[in-house]
Every structure is written in structure tokens, then in C-alpha cells.
Write a structure and sequence with these properties.
Chain A has 387 residues and is α/β, with parallel strands linked by helices. Chain A contains 13 helices and eleven strands. Helix content of chain A is 32%, strand content 17%. In chain A, the strands form three sheets. Chain A has a five-stranded mixed sheet. Chain A has a four-stranded mixed sheet with strand order 8-11-10-9, with helices on both faces. The chains are: A alpha/beta (387), B mainly beta (83).
Amino acid sequence: MSASGRAVAVAGFGYSTVHRGPSPTVEVLTTDACVASIADAGLAPADIDGMFEYQIGNESPKCHYMQRALRTGDLAAYADIMGTGASGLAGALAAVDAVASGACETALAFRGMQQQAGNTGSASGDPLPQAGGSPMHDELVAPFGMFGIIPGIALRMQRRSFEYGGRPEDYGHIAINARRWAALNERAIQRAPLTMEAYLSSRMLCDPLRLLDCDYPVSGACAVIVTTVERARSLRHPVVEVAAHAQATGDGDWVHGTDLLYGGAPRCAERLWHRSGLTPADMDLAQLYDGFTYITLAWLEALGFCGFGEAGDWLEDGRMIGPGGGLPLNTTGGQLAEGRLHGLSGLAEAVCQLRGDAGARQVPHARHAVVAVSAGPQCGGMILRGR
Amino acid sequence: MSGRGTIFSFTVIRRAFHPGFAADLPYVVALVELAEQAGLHLITSIVGDAAQLRIGAEVAVEFEPYGDFARPVFRPLARGSAA
């Protein structure tokens, strides 16, 4: 019941190695992830007839590069998605549409990351993004010293505090949870435990946003294989079906908009639940974007796991979202601790969990998972159904 | 336009996100909702008494010389003066 069209499955996923500091080029890393995903599905490059990827703008390989690197042959459906889009999930969302519609049979979606400050949690010593952008930004925003997305998230956190109260510790539980799961994930970069004291004493970047509210920039790549459920049944893994997929923008951008706190997330959530016929209570785990801790809290509330403004109490000091909790959340460590793979890793991990292949971090009896990526004006999500 | 508004949200920038603003640290970036229309928000800065920096505070525009141009910034109104 994933919108209309053919039933669709995610039949494979793959990662490159993930690096902090010196690394192979982003072309090598992305190719590695794509090769791994095709092999994981038990397919050959010649089986790929669709290809979709997201990037912010010219920082990673495009479809033509990957077509030649993999020698896939002709592509019946393809697109490079840039800028506006559901970040790392955007390629996978487009792949689902293309397979569901019959535009192609088996699509590869990928996201390649080269460690940089970029547009999200860039709080390290990494190079800063180039100043400037649209005329609107240059005239109305830049003169006040607002660049990149970190100050925009800080404005949301301050407003959230005004409207709903809450404590800094609410965000801290998201950061601590990421490290707890990362300790069980050999690919993760930040595997050392984090204490609340260390979170609270991390450097204030833009009040009330701290360094450890930001994701951890890395170099690495992730890829997934999308095909029909019918085809997936003949492949090597248990079928993980896309029960629903959805996007939303709200009415704003990262600076302006009438719903500064949630943007399009509530509409994206409505579409996911309506299209899947499922509810938050049906979910066995969640992979909710954590480019900033704020975003994860906003998704928990927008998806209806708790009421708006109630995530702080709902977390039960982190017990709810940790190993053994009621809603295991971001079970790789996510962007905060595995490293910033820009959200496609959330889909790969949901598939891994629903297949029962997650090893030390496996959520017992996992059948349904929700994935949500980016936030505010660039929302996208999926609900996955396993065995 | 009246040049009046209220602080919708704000942050204190403590890290330079552009080298041109490093000398200004720390500085305030705010969203001000203009009095004329709900939801009409401007990115701006707030000048004056830091103790009055709070969401909901009433503010009035000033044009602050900045390099070769002037920036519209806002100053909190003293309580009782918002007639």
C-alpha cells in the first residue's frame, strides 16, 4: 500500500569504510558502498537499471560516474538530486517511486560523504562552507553573521524552550544514546561512552546549542538496492518491504517559516501513518535523523511517539531509546556517533535490523521500523516491514 | 511600517561561522516578528541591554552603521515606553 503501484522492497545495503581524517577519495568510498550493496542483494551490476543519489552540490560522485565505475549498462530511470531534498534518503525515496511506477526494475541509491563542515553539524576544525548563496541570503541574513545551519538550529532550540520548557538534558540523552549504540557497532567512529556531565560541559557554539548537539563529520558512503517485492522474494535475504514512504516541506526554509519548530515533519508523519495503515505503537525501532540532537526530538514528537514538547519526559532519562528500551533509536549510533553519513545509513540499518542481521545491536523480534531523515523544510521518511 | 516588533527567537553566536565576523564574537542573531503581520520574521541582531534579551520582548528598529552600509537592528523598548 506504498502510495500506488507495485510493492517495493529494499533488497540490499552496503557501506564503505568510515573515516575521520585521512581517507580514500569520496569516489572510491562511494563506489565501495555501491559494490557492497549490489553484492549484499546477490545481484550483479548488470541487474541495476535505475540510479538515484543526493548531494548538497557537486561534492560527491553523480550517477554518470557510478554507472561507468560499476559498468551497469543503460539506466531506465536516474537522477542526481541536489539541494532541496530529504538529504541522504532522497535518492532512496526516488528509487522507490521509480520501481513502484515501473520506470525501472532494480535501482541503486547512494550517498557519498567527504568529511567537511558542510551544511550541518560542522562544529569541528573542518573547513567552513563558502559564504554567500542566494541573493536573499546575501542581503537579508548574511549581514547579521548568520551562516550555515547551526545558528538556525539554535533559534529553534531557544524557541522550543520558550514554548514547551524542557531541559538541556533532553538533548543530552540523544547524544548519550548515540554513543551507547555506537559501542555495539564496529563501523562507528565515536564509540566511547558519553556522560551527561561531559555533554553539558561541551563547548557552547550558539546558545543553547552545544558542540555535542552536532553530528560528527566523517568520510564514508552508504548505498541501498530497491526492487519489487516480487523480485526480492527470489533474492538471498528475507524480504523487507517499503510499507510507506513520504515527504513534506512545510512552508519555510532553514531560516524562515511559520512552523519554526517542526516544519514539514508533522505532515510527513501523517502521510507515513495514513499510507501504511500502521501506528507508532506498531514500530519496533526507529532511525530518526540526528544531524542535530534537536532534530531527533522533533521527529519523535512529529511522528506521535509522544506529544509535542513531551519528548524530554518520554525519554525516561534515555531508557526508552537504549538497548532493551521500548523504542530502540538510532541503533548504529547515527550521525552523532557512527558518523555523518547523512541519513541513508538509517534506512540501511532499519533493513539490517528487520532481516535480523544486526549482531550485537539486534533488536529482538523486530518487524516494523520507521526511518525519518533531515527535518523542517526537507522532510522524508519510510516505514519498513520485515518478516 | 512602524519599525516595531517582538523577539521570536534568538541565539548568541560564540563561534565564527565566517572569518569576517570573528572580531564581533560573541554577537546576537535574532528572529524578530514585525508588528504589522504575524509570521513575518526578519533575521536581525539585538543591541542594548543583554538583560532584556528574551523571547517576547518588544523591540524597535535602529539603523546601525556597519562597514560601508547600515544594518537594521533592533533594541528592546524600556518597559512602559511601548505606546
